[in-house]
């Protein structure tokens, strides 16, 4: 007999960035972060979790390719989920003993993996939710976010839709370092995201390695964590709650700039953006200056691809302005220079 559950998890793009860990084993961040969850019609991981007494070992595939399931991060997630299932089975002995069976996990992304498009976020969120569903765990999303965080920090924010904050927490065991919903997507229905794929290939330095180099060598970084991010978290939450796009956009762009300044301040320096990325910034700036208000906001993660936030009313001017920089249509994910539009989910 095979037990099975399938789920989707969406990509999230941070507008206040997580960069730096205070605990590398538990994935505890140096600062809080805040993200917008993209629609899972557009960018998502789909994961099926199954288990059976006939399976002989845990296994994981991504887009059909076998992955290492023995990494400490994946093992931490599996251990926590099995413990929760074990507790259920102990209190209800009639339940099948799924916690003792090997797991088979199959995942598929509909976007380029590790191109700085938060693939690990959707990946670990989908993995955790699929197993939680398979195990019929009554665990609320906040608690699942604590588990997904141990797979990849940003994954804790993909257990929710809409606008999500991840508070650093203060406890050394990480029990209070979890994500919570600021507002559902329906709170700001005309918010849109445009993804400009300036280079879909694998990134040079992973987030995990890059952020640790920054923590170890950047003199700008402690200032960012202590002085810049905390007031920015409060201002961003306020901008979202009051649907103030001007403030949202300004904070988002300043935050991306400060994050990439810390990357440049790392020794040796880390450069995630390319010439096309910088051209995207200039187009955004020109649009905002010409309109005399914030029309769009750019942000870049640990890669050269640009995410542009804008409001539905400005769709024509925003989409038209980036046409010359990148091509059009989601089909070309594997090619260079594609764009895709997404609504928050
Ligand atoms: C720049 O979550 O990929 O996208 O916890 O080591 O897996 P690990 O790092 P990861 O880092 C994401 C960094 C970022 C900013 C963000 O998403 O907040």
Describe the fold and architecture:
The protein has 345 residues and is an alpha+beta fold. It is built from 8 helices and 15 strands. It has helices at 72-91, 119-134, 141-151, 207-217, 221-241, 245-264, 275-291, 315-322; strands at residues 3-10, 12-16, 21-23, 28-29, 33-37, 44-52, 59-62, 65-67, 102-109, 163-166, 179-183, 191-197, 296-300, 306-311, 338-342. The protein has a 5-stranded mixed beta sheet with strand order 1-6-9-7-8. A 4-stranded antiparallel beta sheet has the order 2-5-10-11. Strand 3 (21-23) and strand 4 form a beta hairpin. Helix 1 packs parallel to helix 2 (119-134), helix 1 packs antiparallel against helix 3 and helix 2 crosses helix 3. The chain is globular, with a radius of gyration of 20 Å. Mean pLDDT is 91; it is low at 329-338. The structure holds ligand DP6. The site of ligand DP6 has 15 residues, from helix 4.
Q: What topology emerges from the helices and strands here?
A:
Blueprint: E1 3-10, E2 12-16, E3 21-23, E4 28-29, E5 33-37, E6 44-52, E7 59-62, E8 65-67, H1 72-91, E9 102-109, H2 119-134, H3 141-151, E10 163-166, E11 179-183, E12 191-197, H4 207-217, H5 221-241, H6 245-264, H7 275-291, E13 296-300, E14 306-311, H8 315-322, E15 338-342
Parallel strand pairs: 7-9
Antiparallel strand pairs: 1-6, 2-5, 3-4, 5-10, 6-9, 7-8, 10-11, 12-14, 12-15, 13-14
